[in-house]
Amino acid sequence: MKFYIATDHAGYAIKAYVKEVVTDLGHEIIDLGPDSADRVDYPDYAKKCAQAVLEDKGSFGILICGTGIGISISANKVPGIRAALCHDHYTAKFTRLHNDANILCFGERVVGKGVIADMIEAFANTEFEGGRHAERVAKIEGCAFGGDLG
Known about the structure:
alpha/beta; Ribose 5-phosphate Isomerase B, Chain: A; 5 strands; 45% helix; 16% strand
């Protein structure tokens, strides 16, 4: 499985650890930046990761900022992306199982290393359940293109 990773300056410090966790699980990871902890704008890196995931079918993304909130909101502006802000094993597992999320988001200032490793493992090892959830994901996708939830 291939993952793309991007952060802002507030998520940069944990990035090396995340890359190690992903490779230790046997997956490939492509670093989309930034290359330092200098101040950057998270929407730029969210877009870069979202576009990479869309262009590389079957791949996934990991986005990190201080809280995970801003970078997840930004990624979700890209049609076809379902970026999920997660805080633990349960949310990481169920966002794949029920929402077919393609980008895992979290905050460096919010979760610790053990939780991060657990979330990545849960996200990577959970398949989308489909069924009634596929209908809901289709409705979400319709909203991205100007549709409604009904």
